[in-house]
Specification:
With 192 residues, this protein is α+β, with helices and mostly antiparallel strands. The chain has one domain: Alpha-Beta Complex (Nucleoside Triphosphate Pyrophosphohydrolase). Helix content is 23%, strand content 38%. It has 4 helices and 11 strands. The protein starts with a helix and ends with a helix.
Length: 192
């Protein structure tokens, strides 16, 4: 499948469905949004991830998507995803074409309800990395993630505790937890 066809499929499928929205009636969770940046390079579709620095409050050193907590002044959760992507890696909101929204997910350790948005960005791009929040960028081809067995469930040791989680490995990095669940959600939605 050509990358342009795949991007069209992603947009069409996302726009034909209602994402699962999680409501917190208990007050136990905070809200956050992430941008799942996608781009075309040499005929392939890639997802952009960040490796969080060791200076951030939550999820130190983990691979995630750019994003963060919804501020009271943010007009929408989509706005939060775009604002955070700009603050963390310099993607300007006018350079992002939102293709759709994935299902909400929860971070069980830090207690966030996360609202993920798929956004097409131009590539190459002049990223501006906020070193206080981001250690590095990681680009993963979507066709790698679509391979059978690329994402699997296994135990993960983190901060002295073992979590049963979806996991995938790429370029010597392990992606797990809410980020791996978002990727699996995308793959399930578009179909392998």
């Amino acid at each position: 499948m050509l990358s342009s066809d795949l991007l069209t499929r992603i947009k069409d499928v996302l726009n034909k469905r209602e994402p699962a929205i999680i409501k917190d009636n208990t007050g136990r969770y905070r809200e956050a949004s992430v941008l799942v940046p996608v781009f075309e390079k040499e005929g392939r579709v890639f997802l952009l991830f960040i490796k969080r620095s060791n200076y951030v409050e939550h999820h130190k050193g983990q691979i995630s998507f750019p994003g963060g907590e919804v501020d009271k002044t943010d007009p929408s959760v989509e706005y939060t995803a775009l604002r955070e992507a700009y603050e963390e890696i310099g993607i300007k909101k006018e350079d992002v074409k939102i293709l759709g929204r994935l299902d909400d997910t929860i971070t069980f350790v830090s207690r966030y309800i996360v609202h993920p948005f798929i956004g097409l960005i131009p590539y190459p791009y002049s990223f501006v990395i906020n070193k206080k929040e981001v250690e590095k960028l990681m680009f993963v081809p979507l066709d790698f993630l679509l391979k059978k067995g690329a994402i699997k469930e296994e135990p993960v040791l983190y901060e002295g505790r073992i979590y049963k989680s979806l996991v995938f490995r790429y370029d010597s990095e392990m992606v797990w937890g809410a980020t791996a669940r978002m990727v699996k959600n995308l793959i399930d939605i578009i179909g392998a």
